[in-house]
Amino acid sequence: MNRINKKLQEDKKLLSIYFTAGYPNLGDTEKIIEDLENSGVDFIEIGLPFSDPLADGPTIQESSTMALKNGMTTTKLFEQLEGIRNKVEIPLIIMGYFNPMLQYGVEEFCKKCQKAGIDGLIIPDLPVDVYHEKYKQLLEKYGLRNIFLITPQTSDERIKYIDSVSDGFIYMVSSASVTGSTSGFGEETKAYFKRVNELQLKNPQIVGFGIKDRETFEQATEYASGAIIGSAFIKHLNEHGTGNIASFVQNVKALT
Amino acid sequence: MSYQVDEKGYYGEFGGAYIPEMLYPNVEELRSRYLEIMKEESFQKEFKELLKEYVGRPTPLYYAKRFSEKYGTKVYLKREDLCHTGAHKVNNTIGQILMAQKLGKKRIIAETGAGQHGVATATVCALMGMECIVYMGEIDIDRQAPNVARMKMLGAKVVPAKSGSRTLKDATNEAIRDWINNPVDTHYIIGSVVGPHPYPDMVARFQAVISEEIKSQLQEMEGKEDPDYVVACVGGGSNAAGAYYHYLDNPEVGIIAVEAAGKGVDSGESAATSALGKAGIIHGSKTLLMQTGDGQITEPYSISAGLDYPGVGPMHANLYTSGRGEFISITDEDAMKAGLELAKLEGIIPAIETSHALAIFESRKFEKDDIVVVNLSGRGDKDLNTYIEYFNL
Fold first, then answer.
1. Does A178 touch chain B (CB under 8 A)?
2. Could you give the ipTM of this predicted complex?
3. Co-location of B82 and B162 in the same domain
4. Interface check A149 vs B, CB under 8 A
């Protein structure tokens, strides 16, 4: 069974952490992954840096720019991930924009993911209909789950369509925003979480955007299976380097 | 086979809407309504009236006698430089502001490189009394101070894009982010035939007035609607899309697209996207773009700020790969000379973008009886400083 699906069966609120590969230093990938697993995180999203990350706010964009300056490339990332499955069991998801994958060759990219033990992909600018038509079979062939985003503006009908082509979880964007730009959840957001929850989707939902500490984690997971932290973790790495990852995770979530 | 957009939003293999889900409702709203709105009688009436009374259309089609004599062929200039605000850009912003009103939007955002599209957007926002926010790369803000001042006079807020390379592509990223953050009340006026479907088609339709006028003007002057060639400069490609529009599917009319070679196609400082680009995704569209082997988008270079976009509209990518269009790239040096030459031969100072299109006559030869229409997309006032420095005027 795919590690993502297996993890989703656990009876707890799941914490997913995003980091940008190649940041703060080119060689930090392995250490960050190991520390996150040891700290009790449930999923890791490895960001493949892109020059023009449209859906991201300044924090993640700056980390991407820095990672590219540090020399991160698709090839380099796969090199760094080569032995990772001898060290960690945690589900690993690559999050990246579509153009670098296209240039690498989508099939070759998927093949390398499988080889490295990657469990799924999040490609924010690959729309669901193009995925469905052109790439679904390819990802499935290499055992990869594709994770789609939904937002408060996504219609129920479209959410159901996304649910029908998904196998894993649905990435529920908490508000109409780019990453890293919200603070706390208002009534409107909670109503949206509840509305999606009531759709009784086959895939669990994990909330992303605007989660940064225990309070926002708990709010986000009231109606969802888990939550994703990205920008707040990047800020932590920026301020404290990679030496202090466990304490960041503990501030969000008691070890279970 | 048609070179127009197909019903899925593609030109051949190019186009589509490669957008994050956060943008889907905005783009889908526009996609599902733009054709029907454009067909409405009230829309057409208002659009045409504004083009006539506010923009000053139709723009003349001028037979450039001395220029023609020099190059031994018949050259007509489509005088988009005489549009209000000095370039063709306003055709699109007039269309889009009316579209925004029909969609019930209250707030307008735009990106700009050199500031021409920003000025054209700020102008129509002033005209309609709408809030206007223009994203502009921090570096471009320094380089294009007069246009920044124009936008401010027109009541727009100019927001510096401080991310990435701090130029046009980053301003576009910031505008897209703004739209993600403001999904309900905001319309994004893209300045060229780029971005996710339906933008390339919608902008081309608003600019299509250029070739519509060429047809009737040429009929009057030459007794036929079709020239042998239509020539236009291409950055993102909106003036070219407008000049080609009604000729795209007429194989009797040759299409010539002129890109900026910068310091030379192989110099590493160029904006010749067709020659240097590979298929990929930029700003929500599958098209040809300049990028590293690893798929990171690179920064183009041209002396003309309106041509240094790392991508090109998907219509043009298809014209290039299908062979329908003839693509020529022109260096800074040849463009500058051509601009000066037109000033001396015809008394018209062109924008440096347009000078690229004029420069092809040195090397691309035409028959004596050929009718060649060059789209004179903009006037050179905004480029005076560059001309002054280049020629020590």
1. yes
2. 0.94
3. no
4. yes
Nearest to A100 among B170, B278, B295 (CB): B295
Q: CA-nearest residue of chain A to B172?
A: A54
What six digits make up the tokens of B52?
A: 């006539």
Helices B199-207, B89-102: crossing angle, 10 deg rounding:
120
Statement to judge: residues B343 and B280 lie in one domain: yes
Instruction: Report the C-alpha gap between B275 and A86 in whole angstroms.
Output: 45
Would you call A70 an interface residue with chain B, using a CB distance cutoff of 8 Å? no
Do B264 and B322 belong together in one domain? yes
Tally of domains in chain B: 2
C-alpha–C-alpha distance, residues A236 and A166, integer Å: 32
Active-site residue list of B: 89, 111, 377
Residue A183: pLDDT band by 50, 70, 90 thresholds? low
Which pLDDT does position B37 carry in this prediction? 98
Look up the domain containing B16 and give its range: 11-50+89-202
DSSP per position, B296-313: PBPPP--SSTTT--SB--
- CA of A179, closest CA in chain B: separation in Å? 10
Task: Give the A window 227-246 contacts with B, CB below 8 Å.
Answer: none
Overall number of domains in chain A: 1
Res B165: pLDDT: 79
- State the pLDDT at residue A190: 87
- Taking CB atoms and an 8 Å cutoff, what residues of chain B touch A68? 296
| Extended beta strands in A6-124, E state | 14-20, 43-48, 92-96, 120-122
Q: Which of B20, B283, B293 sits opposite A103 (nearest CB)?
A: B293
Determine the pLDDT at residue A256: 45
Tell which of B173, B202, B231 closes a domain: B202
In this structure, the answer to whether residues B195 and B221 fall within a common structural domain is no
Does residue B66 share a domain with residue B180? Answer: no
Instruction: Reply yes or no on whether the pLDDT at A182 is more than 80.
Output: no
Closest among A117, A54, A122 to A90, alpha carbons compared: A117
Q: Is residue B4 part of a domain?
A: no
Q: Is residue B179 in some structural domain? A: yes
Domain, as residue range, for A128:
3-252
What is the pTM assigned to this prediction?
A: 0.96
B175 and B64 within one domain: no
The answer to whether the CB atoms of A181 and B181 lie below 8 A apart is yes
Q: Are strands A120-122 and A145-147 parallel, antiparallel or unpaired?
A: parallel
Q: Tell me the catalytic residues of A.
A: 45, 56
CATH number, position A32? 3.20.20.70
Residues B74 and B136 in one domain: no
Beta strand spans in A90-204 (E): 92-96, 120-122, 145-147, 149-150, 170-173
In a domain, B275, yes or no: yes
Size of interface A-B (CB pairs under 8 A): 114
